[in-house]
Amino acid sequence: MTLVEASDADLEALAAGTAVRALRLSHGPIETTEVLTMLRVLANSIRPHFAPASWMIVDGDAIVGLCSLVKPPSGDGIDIGYGVAASRRRRGIASVAVKLLLDWARSDPRVMTVRAETSVLNTPSQRVLERNGFERAGQRIDDEDGEMICWQVSVASPD
Q1: Residue 119: inside a domain, yes or no?
Q2: CA 53, CA 11: separation in Å to the nearest integer?
Q3: Residue 159 lies in a domain
Q4: What sign for the dihedral angle of Cα 5, 131, 38, 69?
């Protein structure tokens, strides 16, 4: 499994349901057209200030999910989101993808902390973060998603 930086053209093609580069789409859509379009717009708003902003999760020759920054970086931290195609869930793909993203973050001197949020009802996503060393950092209420758990993990090298 690898993470491949997703360009604007990649995200545009995925939103149109088209495979990119020499990769094929997983069995079934990665996400809805609306969500993929929103991720494209978000990545394009972040890239001028911080790149990379999004990655395709690739298993063999198939795109099986996406990871991305979910807002512009603040301070020395980034906020991430991730998703795996429904046909590929519950196989450990998200856990491996988040690990790979943390490995990248540890090699980038701009990043000291990685943050994420999960719905209080999304136990599988909570387990992905716990497996990768994230700790609960609080809770908040989101207007669209309801009660959320805030998570973070330090990726800074100890001095």
Answers
A1: yes
A2: 11
A3: no
A4: negative
Asked whether residue 148 is assigned to any structural domain, the reply reads yes
Whole-prediction pTM = 0.92
Q: What is the domain-level CATH number for residue 124?
A: 3.40.630.30
Counting the structural domains of the chain, the total is: 1
- Parent domain of 118: 2-154
Q: Which residues of 38-69 are buried (b: 16+ CB within 10 A; e: fewer)?
A: ebbebbeebeeeeebbbbbbbbeebbbbbbbb
Helix residue spans in 63-147 (DSSP H): 93-107, 123-131
Contacts of 112 (CB under 8 A, 6+ apart): 76, 77, 154, 155, 156
Q: Residue 106: inside a domain, yes or no?
A: yes
pLDDT digits (tens, 9 = 90+) for 54-97: 999 999 999 999 999 999 998 889 999 999 988 888 889 999 99
118-128 pLDDT per residue, tens: 999 999 999 99
Closest CA to 102 of 129, 120, 126, 127: 129
- Answer yes or no: is pLDDT of 159 > 70: no
Q: Tell me the mean pLDDT in the region 28-48.
A: 91
